[in-house]
Please model this.
Amino acid sequence: MDLATLLGIIGAIGIVAMAMILGGDPVIFVNIPSLLIVIGGSLFVVLSKYSLGQFLGAVKVAAKAFAFKLESTEEIIGVLVDVAQVARKGGLLALEDKEVDNKYLKNGMQLLVDGQDREVVRTMLSKDRAMTLERHKWGAKVFTSIGDVGPAMGMIGTLIGLVQMLSNMDDPKSIGPAMAVALLTTLYGAMLATMIAIPIADKLTLRMTEEAQIQSIIIDALLAIQSGQNPRVIEDMLRTYLPAGVRDDATFEQPAQE
Model:
């Protein structure tokens, strides 16, 4: 679970909710027509911009903003060095019995065990990487679109409320509810974009960058293992993925042997 995403969104909503509660009756901030215009309208507008599969897929991809287990660079380097040592001692066929948690790495190791050509290994892993990043990119795009459309739908609701208010100026009782719709749709649109959609889109972009780097490390390591490089040489090569300030001092914990 990514606590930063969860705490950030809940904290932002909580602060706004607290301001509403402390400022008076929070019920006045609840307006069903405004919610329908902003949330329902935004979702339908965004749906019209993408295919149904891309739209629904974005919901699944969004889960990675909250729950996503990805090894750190140091952890994956440690695993890869251990894999290199296993291959050095027992040959590439010994990797068949080597257990790893990373599915992408596991698939790559199977290619080595199957004796695939170097270019085949590179091509298949690169294609798998590109397709994964493409799915994440579309997920981020959908939520970015929601962030763009939300305030616009809020403005549409504001205009609806103003038209209703101006058309009934002779009835003082109708002015209040119409103005509430006008103001609350703007509020809801800003909240949807700023506190939910845009943070999720940005976090998905971050996840995409992190996963891309991890997979690049795996590709480089597996190709080096296939070519018979010494595990020490492979470790030194993979250190280049670390920030310069920690590159020389980093130690890589080896996974427990089963």
Observations:
- The chain has a mean pLDDT of 86.
- DSSP finds nine helices and no strands in the chain.
- Residues 172-226 form the longest helix (55 residues).
- The two ends are 27 Å apart (CA to CA).
